[in-house]
């Protein structure tokens, strides 16, 4: 089998160590063998990116536009192939995998356009006969560290703006799912990127990630992952006086009030809690339901959950694929036991299941009679496990929704314009959904949260310029 190599300074490097990328839908399915970088190779990649920065940062905007546009077009043309690889390595269903790949293509297309739209300002000084120019310049070498749950979309929404605005990049994808990132880097390299502009260093966080954090030559780090790792990145970035952007955990609420349309509420709750196997930072693992609709909502949820098909990610008709690996499955099962011990009622699911292929299959799980103090209601599980909290009214629902250290996404199911408007204004989250799942954000709008969910400028859309550039103020006397 071909070994997929790391890319440093335009060269595919012979690896010292490899990892086996195995499908969680079928542990006998080897997706590929991928190189693991050493700490020395990480430093070589950073040095290459630093050397490439002066020329790339001053490259013409049409050159950047053309490369990003070409990459987006190839990703879109290969969406079925790349989506299948994504689903094999991560476990989300094939329609989800293809949909994520399409989103990656759209992101590259969007930032190809942004390369042509970068602008500044010319304003008068308070002093006569002096002009002021405000322009944006690239930061330098950007370290990008991405998670396993969105193997192609998240690398795309970090790499594309970094390159668009003239930065060079060192990319470390999650060791668990390297195939999708490798494909993006290969596509960009063939699209015409100069050597050293984009470097790929796959491998363990304890080796590759730590080497990146220890380097004084990174001007910025963009990270999506766990809160604990985010704290480590923030501390190291302060030490090295570099810019950082962190997207971390979530414990997102979906509020269902008495006047909600049951069908709409159930659709939003099932999608939010269980699609992509609940492995989304925007997933809603807390359902907060007012007492007037509670019993009907629970009955409808259980009925809908009974119709969900859990099976191989590539199999037609599958609604929910496997958990990503054995460690995450153990975490999910541990939290299910915690919920039982805490006194919540296991209303549906909670068991592993067998399928035709060996994989990490878990029933979607719903706890009722949960309280907001329980660990299953406060800690991010990152699996298809949802806690339902019963409340008296909307006011208690809003208070409960905001009673969390996280603040990424939130949702409400209601037919009341008054309640929808009030919730949008008073929900302590970076993104708010009305009669929609808490997961699902368009590629051209800002993504990010509040509290412990996010730190630094927003990602995606035109707001991405805030992180990947620095503002310069220049004066000229007449």
Question: For this structure, what is the CATH homologous superfamily of the largest domain?
Answer: Aldehyde Dehydrogenase, Chain A, domain 1
Quote the CATH topology of the largest domain: Aldehyde Dehydrogenase, Chain A, domain 1
Widest sheet: strand order? Answer: 15-16-17-14-13-19-20
Number of domains: 2
Give me the CATH architecture of the largest domain, please. Answer: 3-Layer(aba) Sandwich
Indicate the low-confidence ranges by residue numbers. Answer: none
Radius of gyration from CA coordinates? 23 Å
3D structure, described in words:
Helices cover 40% and strands 22% of the residues. The chain has 478 residues and is of the alpha/beta class. It folds into two domains: 271 residues, 3-Layer(aba) Sandwich (Aldehyde Dehydrogenase, Chain A, domain 1); 182 residues, Aldehyde Dehydrogenase, Chain A, domain 2, CATH 3.40.309.10. The strands form six sheets. Strands 15-16-17-14-13-19-20 form a seven-stranded mixed sheet, sandwiched between helices. Helix 2 crosses helix 6. The chain is globular. The N and C termini lie far apart (67 Å). The model has no long low-confidence stretch (mean pLDDT 97).
């Amino acid at each position: 089998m071909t070994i997929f190599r790391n890319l440093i300074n335009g060269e595919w490097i012979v690896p010292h160590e490899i990892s086996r990328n195995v499908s969680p839908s079928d542990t006998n399915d080897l997706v590929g063998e991928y190189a693991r970088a050493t700490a020395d190779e990480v430093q070589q990649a950073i040095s290459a990116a630093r050397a490439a920065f002066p020329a790339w940062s001053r490259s013409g905007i049409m050159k950047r536009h053309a490369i990003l546009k070409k990459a987006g077009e190839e990703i879109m043309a290969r969406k079925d192939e790349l989506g299948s690889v994504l689903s094999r390595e991560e476990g989300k269903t094939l329609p989800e995998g293809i949909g994520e790949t399409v989103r990656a293509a759209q992101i590259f297309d969007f930032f190809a356009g942004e390369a042509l739209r970068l602008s500044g300002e010319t304003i008068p000084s308070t002093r006569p006969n002096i002009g002021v120019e405000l322009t944006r310049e690239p930061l330098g070498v950007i370290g990008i560290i991405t998670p396993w749950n969105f193997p192609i979309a998240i690398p795309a929404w970090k790499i594309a703006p970094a390159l668009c605005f003239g930065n060079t990049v060192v990319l470390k994808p999650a060791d668990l799912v390297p195939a999708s990132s490798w494909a993006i880097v290969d596509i960009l390299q063939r699209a015409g990127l100069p050597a050293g502009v984009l470097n790929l260093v796959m491998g363990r966080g304890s080796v590759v990630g730590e080497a990146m954090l220890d380097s004084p030559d990174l001007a910025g780090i963009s990270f999506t992952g766990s809160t604990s790792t985010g704290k480590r990145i923030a501390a190291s970035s302060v030490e090295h006086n570099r810019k950082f952007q962190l997207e971390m955990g979530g414990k997102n609420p979906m509020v269902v009030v008495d006047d909600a349309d049951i069908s709409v509420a159930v659709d939003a709750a099932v999608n939010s809690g269980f699609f992509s196997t609940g492995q989304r930072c925007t997933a809603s693992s807390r359902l907060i339901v007012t007492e007037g609709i509670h019993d009907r909502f629970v009955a409808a949820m259980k009925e809908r959950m009974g119709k969900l098909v859990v099976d191989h990610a590539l199999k037609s008709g599958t609604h929910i694929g496997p958990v990503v690996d054995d460690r995450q499955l153990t975490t999910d099962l541990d939290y299910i036991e915690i919920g039982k011990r805490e006194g919540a009622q296991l209303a549906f699911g909670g068991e592993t299941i067998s399928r035709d292929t060996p994989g990490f299959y878990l029933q979607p799980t719903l706890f009722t009679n949960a309280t907001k103090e329980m660990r299953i209601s406060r800690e991010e599980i990152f699996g298809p496990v949802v806690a339902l909290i019963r409340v008296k009214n909307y006011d208690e629902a809003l208070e409960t929704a905001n009673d969390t250290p996280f603040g990424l996404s939130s949702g409400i199911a209601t037919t009341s314009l008054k309640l929808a408007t009030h919730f949008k204004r008073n929900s302590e989250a970076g993104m708010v959904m009305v009669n929609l799942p808490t997961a699902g954000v368009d590629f051209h709008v800002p993504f990010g949260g509040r509290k412990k969910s996010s730190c630094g400028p927003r990602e995606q859309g035109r707001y991405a310029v805030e992180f990947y550039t620095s503002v310069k103020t220049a004066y000229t006397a007449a």
